[in-house]
UniProtKB/TrEMBL annotation:
This is Probable glycine dehydrogenase (decarboxylating) subunit 1. It comes from candidate division TA06 bacterium. The glycine cleavage system is composed of four proteins: P, T, L and H. In this organism, the P 'protein' is a heterodimer of two subunits. HAMAP family: GcvPA (MF_00712). Its EC number is 1.4.4.2.
């Protein structure tokens, strides 16, 4: 039985209105060999117990960072998630109301959103934070669009050291708006400020840089911000939230908009999603912020209450003047991030950052002692990620180490052919000395 019970006359009337003779005419864009016959080898129908068993057996083929030693990074990291985060976030009042589309959300949800805003403001040194976005990549794309609205200029300059996946999302998001995206070449793994300056013109709305950058290298964000502002251009900074416990914040180097991926704040890797987009800005730009902002107020009796102060979504108050139409917030991931930050506190977050840094430098030094391995970007400071240059292709190392229970890192050859022998390695506070030593011994055997 179809979900919508249309009779033959209903179907005929709809097809006539659309302007086609039969339903199959609507599928013309799909090659006929893909829509006729059983080409997909789906198999026979299964009962519920059989489906459950099939799905369970399929799921057990997955390999995750609990069963393997993971050095994967590139935006999604294997940080420890305290058990209390799962326990608190799974309470029904959070878990069943994690996407508050409507204005009439509960006070409890509004309080969490308000707390989250406050925590991210303190973490980033920024003045205003919205209540999350899809992920770090779309947050960056939204920031680029917001910059254009603020200053009325059109093109965007992005440092080549920004996560290449983020750059692709910005390009895709900008395609329909015909926004020129200019990529500034890097130098020795860092942003080339001179190259940035050469690409800025009177129509440049913003410059985007990332710190630590895609290669894990710490950029000179103060100098970059100062240079960009001298050109009367907005500065958008992407950041790793864990790094802000020990590195300068976007607020300290005067970023106009700060975006980041918040997965590391109490959210599991989950095979790549759902994620958490962090989005902050200066107070003077609050009217251009996409998404939602919660404020504190007083009711008629003088009691403190929380309200949805701004929600500039197209189906709410702004309609055709909406700041965005894809700014759905990641409410449950946001809640987990707030719980995580409250649990670990300022000193705990600093300990996570410092331990990750210490571990990554230990592994880096050990790997460079292996004959044939070199630093891809020598003498550059890094946070918890680094790039090594191998004597053989990185994909070979990755495949062989996976069979030995190790996720070795990211093959940069996926992004550029000339990077085929380069491996991006991330090391968090979860890695033990024995695990890192095992990694070094196994990679040595392969080389």
């Amino acid at each position: 039985m179809p979900f919508i019970q249309n009779n033959e006359n209903d179907i005929k009337e709809m097809l006539e209105k659309i302007g086609v003779e039969k339903f199959e005419d609507l599928l013309d864009s799909i090659p006929e060999e893909l829509r006729t016959g059983n080409k997909f080898n789906i198999g026979k129908a299964l009962s519920e117990p059989e489906v459950w068993k099939h799905l369970y057996n399929t799921a057990t083929k997955n390999k995750n960072s609990d069963d393997n030693i993971s050095f994967l990074g590139g935006g999604i990291y294997d940080h420890y998630v305290p058990a209390a985060v799962d326990q608190i976030a799974s309470r029904s009042e959070f878990y069943t109301a994690y996407t508050p589309y409507q204005a009439e959300v509960s006070q409890g949800t509004l309080i969490v959103m308000y707390e989250y805003q406050t925590l991210i403001n303190r973490l980033t040194g920024m003045e205003v934070t919205n209540d999350s976005m899809y992920d770090g990549a779309t947050a960056m794309a939204e920031a680029a669009h917001m910059a254009r609205v603020i200053n009325g200029k059109h093109n965007i300059v992005i440092s080549e050291t920004v996560n290449p996946l983020y750059i692709e999302v910005v390009k895709t998001y900008s395609h329909g708006l015909n926004i020129p995206i200019r990529i500034a070449p890097s130098k020795d793994g860092k942003t080339d400020i001179d190259a940035i300056v050469s690409l800025i013109d009177n129509e440049t709305a913003a410059v985007i840089a990332q710190n630590p950058n895609f290669f894990g290298i710490i950029e000179n964000m103060e100098k970059l911000s100062e240079t960009v502002h001298e050109k009367d251009t907005l500065f958008i900074a992407a950041y790793d939230p864990i790094s802000l416990a020990i590195l300068k914040t976007p607020g300290e180097y005067n970023a106009d908009i700060a975006v980041g991926e918040g997965q590391a704040l109490g959210n599991p890797q989950s095979f790549g999603g759902p994620l958490l987009g962090l989005f902050s800005t200066k107070r003077k730009f609050i009217r251009q912020v996409p998404g939602r902002i919660v404020g504190a107020t007083k009711d008629a009796n003088g009691n403190t209450g929380y309200v949805m102060t701004l929600q500039t979504r197209e189906q709410h108050i702004k309609r055709d003047r909406a700041t965005s139409n894809i700014c759905s917030n990641e409410g449950l991931c946001m809640t987990r991030a707030a719980i995580y930050l409250e649990l670990v506190g300022e000193e705990g977050l600093k300990a996570v950052a410092e331990t990750s840094t210490k571990n990554s430098h230990y592994l880096f030094d050990k790997l460079l002692s292996v004959n044939g391995i070199e630093a891809a970007f020598p003498n550059t400071p890094f946070f918890k990620e680094f790039v090594i240059k191998l004597p053989i292709e990185a994909k070979t190392i990755i495949n062989k180490l996976e069979n030995r229970g190790i996720f070795a890192g990211i093959n940069l050859g996926k992004f550029r052919k000339e990077w085929a022998k380069m491996l991006l390695i991330a090391v968090t506070e979860t890695k033990t000395k024995d695990e890192m030593d095992y990694f070094v011994s196994e990679i040595k055997k392969i080389i």
